[in-house]
Amino acid sequence: MAEIVILGGGVSGISAAWHARRAGREAVIFEAKERWGGLLDHFCLDGYRFDNAVHFAFSSNDDYRAVLEMSEYTIHKPEPFNYELGRWLKHPVQNNLYPLPAEEKVEAIKSFLERPERSDDPDYGQWLEQQFGKWIASRFPGRYTEKYWTVPAEQLSTAWIGNRLYRPSLEEVLFGAMTSRTPDTYYLPEMLYPRRGGYRTFLEPLVEGLNLQTGKEAVYVDPQNKYVEFQDGSREHYNYLVSSIPLPELVTMIDAFSTSVKEAAASLWATSVALVSLGFSKPKAGDHLWFYIYDQDILPSRSHAPYLKSADNVPADCSSLQFETYFSRHKDLALSGDQLIDHVINQVERLNLANRSDITVADFRVLPYGNVVFDRGMVERRNYVLEAVEKFSILPVGRFGEWDYLWADQSFLSGKKVEKLPFMV
Ligand SMILES: Cc1cc2nc3c(=O)[nH]c(=O)nc-3n(C[C@H](O)[C@H](O)[C@H](O)COP(=O)(O)OP(=O)(O)OC[C@H]3O[C@@H](n4cnc5c(N)ncnc54)[C@H](O)[C@@H]3O)c2cc1C
Q1: Can you give the CATH number for the domain in which 245 is found?
Q2: Which ligand 1 atom is at minimum distance from the Cα of 12?
Q3: How far apart are CA 191 and CA 321, in angstroms?
Q4: Same domain, 220 and 307
Q5: Is 390 exposed, middle or buried (0-12, 13-18, 19+ CB in 10 A)?
Q6: CA gap 246, 397 in Å, rounded
Q7: Model confidence over 227-279: pLDDT tens digits?
Q8: Is residue 360 domain-shared with residue 282, that is, in the same domain?
Q9: Are 263 and 381 in the same domain?
Q10: Looking at residue 57, which CATH number applies to its domain?
Q11: Is 192 found in the same domain as 299?
């Protein structure tokens, strides 16, 4: 029997075990996959390393900064771009309209001036119009929402926004419409990335010495008798259970929940991410560390350049790009496997990033859980489920355990909540 059983070996589970050990407690992590790291893991193909989607490190939290400081890293200045209809616009678009035709800039500014009054509890669609005016809202973030969140903005709440979307003044909108010499207004001043080994390298010092068992997928939890059952038929008893596995999945593993809890859990949904990763036998593939794509006929909504994050991610004189296409229970993946790869390669040529003949590696894979979706009323339904889970003395942690839009550092801090388990006060 383990004192603390932790389900999931992503950053939140690792953090929980690490904090427990620091407090002198015995914890064991059970991870379903053969490797630890979760979303912060990577895969390698013929000398090209790809993280699971774009991943940079940033944090204003001292504890997580201390973790990052344990590895050698490169500091990147974020200079994201936006691609739309053959044009490249600096990010964020709302105060970087310069490349647009004059007629469109006039429309954008007129509608910015006429933006509706702020209202209480707007949906995300209304919120966008209140911030940017109808023209910008529908042309850029509105269309992006349908690609990234897979539903129209009107179906989302605003609970997840935080500082993620820049809200410019009129002066900034006007300035950005007249010149490309705009100041950086991205919400992060810098982002860190390990010199070697991909994002996961940052977590290695935490994992050292932990009891972490891989290939152990939890399939059943009996919170009354305090044990977890695994796919391989084994059982582990615990005093305390910490779960970073997706909240709706945890609920299906426990018989004792009421129908209303089960229904609320079943109503929670997340986007999935189809990754197309390409390696090129030439040293450059476009100019951008990462960029967003607004065109509806281009399936991916975002692309990043692993070789620009670190030269260690590619063989010498080579480059790489990875494209993210989002889908969900509300939007099918229009193309899959080789068909999506082919579609992406066509876009790579269309955007003049590289040629088909430069490609040495092409890979398709799916991350089943990408972003938890804040459709309207989700927060209340999720909190209802979390309350029921906690009544069974299970501590939910991490992006999918807590069912929240957490960055890696926030997931790490979520794992730190293990310190609040009763025996640690
Ligand atoms: C596209 C994308 C881009 C991102 N970019 C950034 C970024 O640039 N910077 C940043 O800070 N954050 C970023 N994030 C967020 C970051 O990835 C997460 O906050 C963090 O990785 C979540 O860690 P976690 O441990 O909570 O979850 P996970 O990493 O998902 O770990 C959960 C683990 O549980 C395991 N598991 C699931 N079911 C079971 C089971 N039944 N039994 C046992 N184990 C199970 C899974 O295999 C997984 O390893 C991004 C996220 C996405 C989706």
Answers
A1: 3.50.50.60
A2: 25
A3: 18
A4: no
A5: exposed
A6: 10
A7: 999 999 999 999 999 999 999 999 999 999 999 999 999 999 999 999 999 99
A8: yes
A9: yes
A10: 3.90.660.20
A11: yes
Q: Give the model confidence (pLDDT) of 50-64 as tens digits.
A: 999 999 999 999 999
Q: Domain boundary residue among 122, 152, 178?
A: 178
Amino acid identity, position 237:
H
Shared domain check, 142 and 63: no
Is the sign of the CA dihedral 349, 352, 358, 362 positive or negative?
Answer: negative
- Both 50 and 172 in one domain: the answer is no
Residues 244 and 338 in one domain: no
| Binding site membership of 76 for ligand 1 (Cβ less than 6 Å) | no
Q: Is 396 in the pocket of ligand 1 (CB under 6 A)?
A: no
Number of H helices, E strands in the chain: 15, 18
pLDDT (tens digit per residue) in 382-406: 999 999 999 999 999 999 999 999 9
Residues 224 and 130 in one domain: no
CA–CA dist 303, 361 (Å, integer): 16
Determine the distance separating the centroid of ligand 1 and the alpha carbon of 52, expressed in angstroms. 9
Q: 190 near 75, Cβ under 8 Å?
A: yes
Q: Is residue 66 part of a domain?
A: yes
Question: How far is it, in rounded angstroms, from Cα 308 to Cα 320?
Answer: 8
Q: How many domains does the chain have?
A: 3
Pocket flag, ligand 1, residue 417 (CB < 6 Å)? no
pTM of the model: 0.97
Give the tens place of pLDDT for each residue, 298-345: 999 999 999 999 999 999 999 999 999 999 999 999 999 999 999 999
- In degrees, rounded to 5, the angle at the alpha carbon of residue 400 between the alpha carbons of residues 394 and 401 is 5
